[in-house]
Amino acid sequence: MGFSLSSNWKQLQRKQISKKGTGKKRPKSAAAIVSKSVKASELSNKESTVSLKFTVTESTNRVSHRKKEVGKYLAMDCEFVGAGEEGESSILARVSLVNYHGITVYDTFVLPTEKVTDWRTHVSGVTPAHMKDAVSFKEAQKKGVRSTRRKNFGGT
Prior knowledge:
The chain has 156 residues and is of the alpha+beta class. Helix content is 39%, strand content 22%.
């Protein structure tokens, strides 16, 4: 018995094939940008060095600036500590948001709302010392929500 693609998959494949070759290809690295924009052999050694440094820095800044933008995709990670008699109840202790490129958008420690009985440091990395700069749950929630409006999410 042979395997057959559904009509949806076939339609998607046709779209992808028709899109190939359209648009400009991006250089793979800053070096590729430099090699296309400046020919070192055409300049004196001193001019060549200055031009190449400028071009590499300029192109790298453009890329890193784009990566720092929040963008439309975010991932969230939360760390929890234990509360209750044997630390069986989990309480938020840290929340982190990163964009598509892994750049941190928001990262803060959160004051536990109950007495911590198990810091779970071996898993969470959170220690009592982190709590000196921690914010309240309400404050973390408010700032986190502000960062996440109209975003697509992934999280653990």
